[in-house]
Design brief:
Bound molecules: (4S)-2,6-dioxohexahydropyrimidine-4-carboxylic acid
Order of helices and strands: EEEEEEHEHEHEHEHEHEHHEHHHEEE
Shape: globular
Number of helices: 11
């Protein structure tokens, strides 16, 4: 039995076309004509798009289930339109060996309601220095390597990581923060480590993805590295596009920046210097947040925040937003390209109502933690 989704605007190969799509057994099927017994669902002219892909989420399991679990985090992802999320390794135990990674994979198999692809750590115990992980041993089961939450502080250790990853075609994720510098100048801390990692990327030719780029200097540095041919990609977060330190006082790493930085991020999106939008979904309990934990939940608000900011306010085409939130992040990590929506592909589809106006109510989020500074904000698109 097929299900026909009719009367939709369907995103295929970079643009929207009116039409229908057929799904059978969880996969996109050749359309043809509905037959007796098939189900027909009228989508009322709404947009049907390939599921969003988030290359940067914190699902907190194993280790911190009071903040989030694979079950609640992936429920939040599904509600936000994500069909694939990539989980950062600041966990307990940190996924630094196949055995510790296995604990996470087991929970994912048991509880995840969307596809979850984990990262391995770069350093043992995610200490940011000391011993590197066995990249080859972890590679078959991870999408990349990251010490997110802290930068790899030792330049020598990061250089060795680049050397290994360049030989094996693996991707390194950079949380750019010089932690000796960040206590007194977080801007300099991001810029210094960004430039160091970009240099190593060009020098070794290993794939680098820069997480949560937030300063105009970092955007410029990425642009120059791309011009020079370095195999680098980068992401920005919805919150660094939406807030500035003047509009919101909220602890997050990297911190909220200045209006000029937001302009640089938007310009970076227009110019293609910025490849992707990723949430850095970082759940914390109310108590942990009150005690100074950095970060905010973001999976359930990301699309609406970005649609409102970039498309409604800045005139960015919806097709470009779709690329930033789905096809480009999938490409960065070598995941299946959903852009074609061709028969045989997993039916990772999301229905988007661009006319919806809604007000964020943190209490109603599916995420276990409610640390959303968008609470009370009216947004467009759902
Ligand atoms: O604000 C943040 N929170 N930034 C990070 O890089 C890590 C994250 C977390 O794990 O809570």
């Amino acid at each position: 039995m097929k299900t026909f989704y009719t009367n939709a605007k369907i995103f295929r190969n970079g643009r929207f076309e009116p039409g229908l799509i057929a799904v059978e057994g969880g996969r996109i099927a050749a359309a043809g004509e509905p037959r007796p017994g098939d189900r027909v669902v009228d989508l009322g002219g709404r947009h049907l798009v390939p599921g969003l892909v988030d290359v940067h989420v914190h699902l907190r399991e194993p280790g911190f289930p009071q903040k989030e679990t694979i079950a609640t985090g992936t429920a939040a992802a599904a509600r936000g339109g994500y069909t694939t999320v990539c989980s950062m390794p600041n966990l307990n135990p940190a996924p630094d060996t196949p055995a510790t990674l296995g604990e996470q994979l087991e929970i994912i198999r048991r509880d995840a309601v969307v596809r979850v692809k984990p990262y391995g750590t770069i350093t043992m115990g995610q200490r940011g220095c000391g011993e590197l992980v066995d990249f080859a041993a972890l590679a078959p089961q991870v999408v990349g390597f990251s010490d997110d939450g802290r930068g790899v502080q030792s330049a020598a250790v990061m250089a060795k990581a680049f050397a290994v990853c360049s030989q094996r075609g693996l991707t390194l994720m950079s949380h750019a923060e010089d932690m000796d510098v960040s206590p007194w100048d977080y801007r300099l801390a991001e810029n210094l480590e960004t430039v160091r990692n970009l240099h190593l990327c060009g020098y070794y030719g290993a794939r680098l993805h820069l997480c949560h780029v937030s300063t105009k200097e970092a955007v410029e540095a990425v642009q120059q590295a791309k011009w020079a041919g370095a195999p680098v990609t980068c992401e920005v977060t919805p919150h660094h596009l939406w807030f500035t330190r003047d509009t919101l006082d909220y602890r997050v790493n990297p911190p909220l920046r200045e209006a000029a930085d937001v302009e640089a991020l938007v310009e970076g999106i227009r110019l293609g210097v910025v490849d992707a939008i990723a949430t850095d979904h970082a759940p914390h309990t109310a108590g942990e947040k009150a005690a100074g934990a950095a970060g905010m939940v973001g999976l359930e608000t990301a699309f609406a925040v970005c649609y409102t900011k970039l498309c409604v306010q800045q005139g960015l085409p919806l097709a470009r937003l779709q690329e930033l939130m789905s096809t480009a992040p999938a490409a960065i990590l070598g995941l299946e390209n959903k852009g074609g929506l061709a028969p045989g592909m997993d039916a990772d589809l999301v229905l988007v109502d661009l006319h919806a106006r809604w007000t964020v109510d943190a209490a109603r989020l599916h995420s276990k933690s409610k640390n959303s500074p968008y609470h009370g904000q009216e947004l467009r698109g759902q």
